[in-house]
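Database export, one record per block. Field names are fixed; values are copied verbatim from the stored entry.
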Amino acid sequence: MMTVDNENAVTVKDLVKRFGDFIAVNRVSFEVARGEVFGFLGPNGAGKSTTIRMLCGLLLPTSGSGMVAGYDILTETEEIKSHIGYMSQKFSLYPNLTVRENIDFYSGIYRIPEAKKKARKEWVLEMGHLGEYQDSLTAILPVGLKQRLALGCAILHEPSILFLDEPTSGVDPINRRRFWDLIYDLSGKGVTVFVTTHYMDEAENCDRLGLIYRGELIASGPSDKLKSELMQEEVLEIHCDRPQDAMLEIEQQLGISDVSLFGNSLHLVADEDKAAAKDIAGFLQKQGHKVERVEKIAPSLEDVFVSLIQSRDRMEAPQVEVKR
């Protein structure tokens, strides 16, 4: 059993989860400080949801150890559940209940004292701007309102740690921004927030990040540190006419695979073939493109993540998932 860590809300060491021959989470270790917003970033199928379910006491690890809110994830799962808030990607709401009825239901689940129920319900309605919808069926609410209702229900009991599993998936940009305002508000009040996401812009909002790929934690730290210390390759920004055509020509003829569209420009990552990258302006001009400029820029978080993934893929063959 791990020693209780008063500085960290979450401590995980060598966490493993297997499903038959498939390793969903492979020896993952990290810490989340009390009161911070920790982002768990990775593509779909990387192991984010499996990890979060183990931390919430919903899934037992195959091996490894961890503490959440001072409780052991192997032996004290029921205690963990009563001290955390959990919001799944599918919003665990009852569609055939009204907004008010959903709040009442979760008040009972979390055993909120009768004297506090009314105040907590009013807080959720105010926090989520749900007052005028309290008698509406949850099934007919727009996604942004369902999202805020799900968050309110997850924190009715005022937990010290909140787990959010891809909470903004399918939500429009305006409501995503509003949701993050709520996260900042909770964090400012001392709540630890653990959020999984595959959105790079959301990841930038976190105090620290863990990058997970194929079940392994491949990097962790503040986004600025990840960008300054982990990106060894040069990143070039190319401004030219017909950038999409230019991208295809670069991929097919120069053989540089790390090139992608960024708005009206291209980002190119130069690794082994730096000579080809340096002569990119000349190459494009020969192809009939008007090149405005080619300049070295600071890498984005997406550049770093793609570079780390490709480096990992070069090191080992892809793992084949066994159907269960």
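Remark 1: The chain is about 35% helix and 25% strand.
Remark 2: The radius of gyration is 23 Å.
End of record.
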